[in-house]
Amino acid sequence: MNDEISMPNDIVEFAQELTSGEPGALEIIKIQEFEGDEDTNDDALERKHREFEAVHQSLVEELSSRFGAPNVSKVEDEFETIPLCGVYPAATWEVEGMELFLAISHEDRETPMLLAIGTT
Fold first, then answer.
1. In which element (H, E) is residue 45 found?
2. For 66, phi and psi rounded to 5 degrees?
3. Which of 3, 23, 27, 42 is 20–30 Å from 17 (CA)?
4. Quick one: pLDDT at residue 107?
5. What is the pLDDT of residues 13-46, one digit of tens each?
6. What residues contact residue 50 under an 8 Å CB cut-off, 6+ apart?
């Protein structure tokens, strides 16, 4: 497994920068690429998804302190405005006429798992 992190030091400040620009920003802040059958078995994928969910939840809490309570997805791909596939979980906030989102995306076992933040 190859795990890359490009996490901003201050997620709230980073989100404020995104929302001060034009809608359509998309930043991958964590990516997990899978290599071989060992990485893509159900247990390994589930373990990695739980790890991503813990990071996602922590960041949602930080962002909520500035942007308020988010809309939280209850099913995969619930928020059609997020420009990714296989999105779950996701959180969105209405900020200055646009939508800020934080989402985990994992379309298929052969594709990378992503943690992304962006605006629509």
1. helix 42-67
2. -105, -40
3. 3
4. 87
5. 999 999 999 999 999 999 998 877 666 688 888 8
6. none
Q: What share of the chain is helix, strand, coil (3-state, %, to 5)?
A: 35, 30, 35
CA distance 94 to 86: 22
Which helix (DSSP H) or strand (DSSP E) does residue 31 occupy?
strand 26-33
The pLDDT assigned to 42 comes to 81
Cβ proximity of 18 and 27 under 8 Å:
yes
Residues in the chain: 120
Is the bond preceding residue 89 a cis peptide, omega within 30 degrees?
yes
Report the DSSP beta bridge partners of residue 115.
Answer: 30, 104
pTM beyond 0.70: the answer is yes
Structural domain that includes position 90: 2-119
Domain count, the chain: 1
> Could you give the C-alpha distances from 93 to 102, 107, 119, in angstroms and in order?
9, 23, 9
